[in-house]
Design brief:
Blueprint: H1 8-24, E1 34-35, E2 38-39, E3 51-57, E4 61-67, E5 73-79, E6 85-92, E7 98-102, E8 105-109, E9 113-118, E10 121-127, E11 130-133
Antiparallel strand pairs: 1-2, 3-4, 3-11, 4-5, 5-6, 6-7, 7-8, 8-9, 9-10
């Protein structure tokens, strides 16, 4: 039976590897705060007297669909990469999805994803990582993956 001998070099190498693992370990961001109006401190939020119809996040976007007291719908979107904001009139489609259009690009808020298209061509389909409907705004996300925290450009976004 051979005895294990501690080597100072081996100990230093192990400590270095442990430090690199700790530094390189990914962190999981907590889901941003929500309430009955959408995402707190976000453009993806409905301002009273409008009410939220549904809101959600994908890996790239955060969106809220609002309904005014007059029954008009509004799409409120934020691109997470750079905090770019878009507020557009929206309409309710026959299938229950909400559609907003901006210069020929359509943003469809459907039950399973945000679909961005131009005419009949889907440019991108972003599955929801977090999705809420009216009356269930405080419920748990539809999946376990949390969306990223709001970007500085989004925090305090206008709620008009």
């Amino acid at each position: 039976m051979s005895a294990f001998r501690f080597s100072p070099r081996l100990g230093a190498a192990a400590a270095g590897c442990a430090a690199l693992l700790a530094i390189g370990a990914p962190t999981v961001a907590a889901a941003p705060a929500t309430d009955a109006q959408g995402y707190v401190d976000s453009t993806a939020r409905c301002a009273a007297p409008s009410t939220v119809v549904e809101f959600g996040s994908t890996d790239k976007s955060r969106v809220a669909v609002c309904k005014s007291a007059k029954g008009e719908y509004q799409y409120r979107g934020v691109r997470l990469r750079d905090g770019a904001k878009m507020i557009l009139p929206a309409k309710l489609a026959d299938d229950g999805a909400f559609i907003a259009e901006n210069y020929g690009i359509e943003y469809t808020v459907a039950a399973k994803s945000l679909i961005i298209s131009e005419g009949d061509r889907v440019l991108r389909e972003e599955p929801w990582t977090d999705f809420h409907t009216a009356g269930a705004a405080a419920s748990a996300p539809t999946t376990a993956a949390p969306p990223s925290d709001p970007l500085p450009a989004e925090v305090g976004g206008s709620s008009n």
